[in-house]
Amino acid sequence: MRTLAAVAISCLLLVQLANGLPVGKLRTTAAAAKVQDNPQLSGETSMEEDSDAQTPIVLFIIGELGKLAKWVLERGSVVVNNAVTELKAIPDKDELLQANITRMSRVATEAAQFKFQDDEESILKLFENMITFADMMSDYDSMPENSKLKLTLKAALENNGYNQFDNEFQQKVVNLAEKFETDFGEYFKGLTAEEKLKSAKLLQWYEEFKAETNEERKLDKFGEFFDF
Fold it and tell me: Measured over all CA atoms, what is the biggest interatomic distance in the chain, rounded to whole angstroms?
């Protein structure tokens, strides 16, 4: 799940950015992330309220990625915990397999037990859990394809809905990218000439992001937003 790792990196960068935002704004964004449909980018936070054009965009992204992270943890924890149950039934497990079972159980259990609240600590914890989950799956993806460990874990995961989970996740990322593209465009349309001038680099980035059609390169381009 390379895409999951890319989203997790975005979450990590958001955690770093969020630590520098006012507590009140994080609390507002945490509440927005809890509902099914977030306010539009041009809604709650205006340029009059924020002199930095990047701030409302950051808050918007936090809300959208927060919803995606919640879904990943809720669905992914079920898949992994069920796979763990199957793996535990294997007799004569070697140390490497047992270590992976222990890690999978710990990460999935923590994800399943996480309860999202309307506060800034909760949204930061949400992203931290997402990163931990993505790191685990990234390590799984990087295992040699024909190794005994990879084949054993793969069988257990696929027997418990991993492929469907992965396919649904990929589609959610595609939908999210389309939403970003549309809502960013509407946001930039609402800026004054002076605000557009101040946001020239962001506008250039948006045009390049919009023009990219390759899914992986589009994700890489999205990650460049955090360099501003």
Answer: 69
